[in-house]
Design goal:
This protein is α+β, with helices and mostly antiparallel strands and 159 residues long. Helix content is 33%, strand content 31%. It is built from five helices and seven strands.
Length: 159
């Protein structure tokens, strides 16, 4: 489904702290498909699970590729508490996938690398601008509002 371009300039309608979670993988050995493909396929299943349960706290996500070897997801969450609750929930897909990955990592010969970064950004410490764009990133997760003429990035950060 394609998103419609929203004409003009807008900014994310986020209020309060913003939780941004990056998670990704790097294929270290392309030929070891049996090692990296299960890791690659785990994330879409988790994203589908989260999209079916809005109370879990995932507000939005963006799938990205850093290179032919590196794939990652930028996620926006309601709170760090909801992110951590999902990660630890025994009845959700993440925890068993993480346990399985750890079991196989011991024997993987470093065929696949994984990483994540979590940012809790206090209100007043983030800023966004979108010009003639469909909803994207923080604006897709929190919605957008039109930019007021003459307001600069420094002004939006100070507000």
């Amino acid at each position: 489904m394609r998103s419609r371009t929203q004409p003009g300039r807008s900014t994310a309608a986020a209020r309060g702290d913003v939780v941004v979670f990056h998670i990704g993988m790097r294929i270290n050995h392309f030929w070891a498909v049996h090692r990296w493909l299960p890791v690659f396929l785990a994330m879409p299943r988790m994203l589908r699970e989260l999209s079916r349960d809005p109370s879990a706290g995932l507000l939005g996500h963006q799938l990205l590729s850093g290179s032919p070897r590196t794939y990652y997801v930028v996620q926006y969450w309601e709170s760090k508490e909801k992110l951590l609750a999902y990660a630890a929930a025994p009845d959700k897909l993440h925890r068993p996938a993480w346990a399985k990955f750890n079991r196989h990592a011991r024997d993987s010969k470093q065929h696949v690398g994984i990483w994540h970064e979590t940012y809790v950004v206090p209100e007043g410490s983030y800023e966004s601008i979108y010009g003639d764009m469909p909803p994207h990133g923080l604006g897709k997760a929190h919605g957008v509002v039109p930019l007021r003429d003459g307001v600069q990035a420094a002004d939006r950060l100070a507000a």
